[in-house]
Write a structure and sequence with these properties.
Helix content is 42%, strand content 2%. The chain has six helices and two strands. The protein has helices at 53-66, 71-79, 93-96, 101-120, 129-150, 174-187; strands spanning 8-9, 15-16.
């Protein structure tokens, strides 16, 4: 369609071109997809039915707030994985790291989806260091917590892990993840974008 190549229909009925994405084609209504999108490629342990990207983002945002980070950093934490609602989706970390041609291409594609989301909603991309550093740190703390609470016991080496949060993660259903995310959206001063639905 429109000579832009491969495309997919979004949750709201929109169209997305993963190889030529445009910020103006990001729809607020499509952001709900992150409330359905499982982390870890569904490889959480038995009994953990679904731990979604949006739940993770809310926890990152709240951790940044607890650390006293400014609203813009909290907002970036709340959106830091929203690009994953678009193709190629939530890629398992090892797939995005390294020098394999697939890894390089997948990382570039994922970055482009995230750029469009951030630009659409008025957030910086790439994150400047004063935002990137605390967001990455909060993300790493959540990674440790998620490994402890949601993953099967394993000898797999995850590299250096930070101290997990004291509270345990109990995965939310999609509708709750969406409600909690919207609450944080207003808390970080971005409620105006709901009008873009």
């Amino acid at each position: 369609m429109n000579g832009r190549g491969a495309h997919a229909q979004t949750l709201s009925g929109g169209i997305w071109y993963p190889f030529s994405p445009r910020p103006e084609e990001v729809r607020f209504a499509d952001q709900f997809a992150a409330a359905r999108l499982p982390r870890y490629g569904c490889h959480t342990k038995r009994g953990v039915d679904r731990y979604v990207v949006m739940h993770h983002e809310v926890l990152v945002c709240r951790l940044l707030r607890a650390w006293g980070e400014p609203l813009i950093t909290q907002a970036c934490g709340l959106f830091h994985d929203q690009g994953e609602i678009y193709t190629p989706g939530d890629q398992i970390g090892p797939m995005l790291r390294g020098s394999h041609p697939f890894s390089v291409a997948a990382k570039a594609l994922a970055d482009e989806q995230q750029r469009c989301v951030n630009q659409r909603f008025g957030l910086p991309w790439p994150y400047p260091e004063h935002i990137a550093k605390p967001v990455k740190l909060a993300d790493a703390v959540l990674l440790s917590t998620e490994r402890r609470d949601l993953m099967a016991d394993s000898d797999v080496d995850w590299g250096h892990m930070l101290e997990p949060l004291p509270e345990r993660i109990e995965p939310w259903e999609p509708e709750r993840a969406w409600r909690e995310w919207l609450t944080e959206l207003y808390a970080v001063g971005m409620g105006r974008i709901v009008e873009l639905a």
